[in-house]
């Protein structure tokens, strides 16, 4: 089957490359650590000249051989590659942002090998506390493509990660979203705070400890907020009530529990209803499993997982941009 | 004036030494970086033998010359020096803990030079989420000594720091306290997270940015909690609404605001009253000034600062232990 598109999901710490055939079918995929904050440095010859530009180097690494074989393949990319610190800035689109038409606003950068890379713009919500995303808008599109239109009214799309996003959609538009820095806070506390000193990591997932953390966040004790309950990851260790190998998952549950507890409160207020929306989760499988577990404890009873949202979204955007042709008529 | 006591406030990252005369008057004081997590390593001769023990080395550094001059001076110490990772563990006293009588439970360790160091026990509250303190109990005593007994009913003693403590007292006893890891969370986020990358630090205090952070925490936007509002320290920068040199103080205000907002809610619930207690703050002057500013914004209208709480508390404990004699009759 002939490749029709190279699709790149190029974030802060990773770069995933997909070679897609008609209908967006994945022929091959690769995962590299060449996110925009950790680009390769070793010079190489590109287009006959020595090159030291990190973006060019990462691009060659990710799909140079695919382009050698098929130089006319179009290339599309989403994520932090379009940020001010990226390869070429693709200005944010404002909410309400119609994700299906983002493909008509791609920003182009010409690579040294002469191939154009089409970069998807991020989305900004200019509220009192502004919110921004880059990459998630593409995943949201990938999910919406497979949903009946009316399903989105009672839906919240969750994208767990270093900075998790919770996205509300209406009529194919991103109308509102919240960001929680839960993943990054967990990482810096585990690596650099006193809480990490007594954590023994690397064992299997301690589900009971995780659930306990979630329950603490939801309990009356949780009303002091995460800045306070965090300390229990240490003090329960001091009193022998939490073993060293359970502390990391307890902390994970505690932070995710605080995130989802706050999210549930805000959702009830925004919807003026005690009922919570359906959830579709997109992201890393293990992380989504944690969120699913905690969502259930927080009263979100309808939770499903989306697969291949990124590659599907990128394919749709390439279609909208005319980089590939539709197979709908076949 | 003759010295009567050496008093040490020996924490995780610092060691403060006081030479006290009768009535607890401070004759001399020193501040060293030799907290229990960063003890000196260079060997020295102590008591005729080469010594490499970090606690002995720090002790010599802090007050060896004072003891050379007056070998019979008693020594008392509070703080993390009495923890399991300290010089000698002084078991916690349970709440309700009468702070005036902690002096009768000192733990003794004999130093190489033959001088006994008397270590003050910490306090533990064995609630569902246990809470512990070491050092703060001594400061609370130092404050209570100067207060009329009935004042403590409507009082909350605040000890801002890496792990701030909020202490409720009744009849001279610590009956309840909360811990917030606000200071440490601020430090690790500023040093190790994406928020630090755009912070330009080292300038003067940006009071407006700090106040803005406090207000965000108190606003409807703050209902998503600190894990979410944190991201605004970045997104307001991206939209040009918060300058690089204002971001650290904004983040500081945001975190302290979330701490105090949660504290106010919990206090109202515990006291079953809309009225908030009086506050006495103990600690670093600049940090207390930040807390005072934020407390005012959060509705705590009666706030005072305590001076010399540590040295006064240590003197009182030494009196209770019979290490020094009272001057009350003079």
Structure description:
The structure is a homodimer of 330-residue chains. Chain A is α/β, with parallel strands linked by helices and 330 residues long. Chain A folds into two domains: 3-146 and 309-320, Nucleotidyltransferase, domain 5, CATH 3.30.420.300; 179-305, Nucleotidyltransferase, domain 5. Chain A is 34% helix and 23% strand. The first copy, chain A, contains ten helices and 17 strands. Chain A has helices spanning 54-69, 136-144, 182-192, 194-197, 207-218, 226-229, 232-238, 247-271, 285-297, 309-320, and strands at residues 3-10, 15-21, 26-32, 44-46, 49-51, 75-78, 93-94, 97-98, 107-110, 116-119, 123-125, 131-133, 155-159, 164-170, 173-180, 278-281, 303-305. In chain A, the strands form four sheets. A six-stranded mixed sheet of chain A has the order 3-2-1-6-10-9, with helices on both faces. Chain A has a six-stranded mixed sheet with strand order 8-15-14-13-16-17, with helices on both faces. A three-stranded mixed sheet of chain A has the order 7-11-12, with no helix packed on it. In chain A, a hairpin with a 2-residue loop joins strand 4 (44-46) and strand 5 (49-51). The first copy, chain A, is globular.
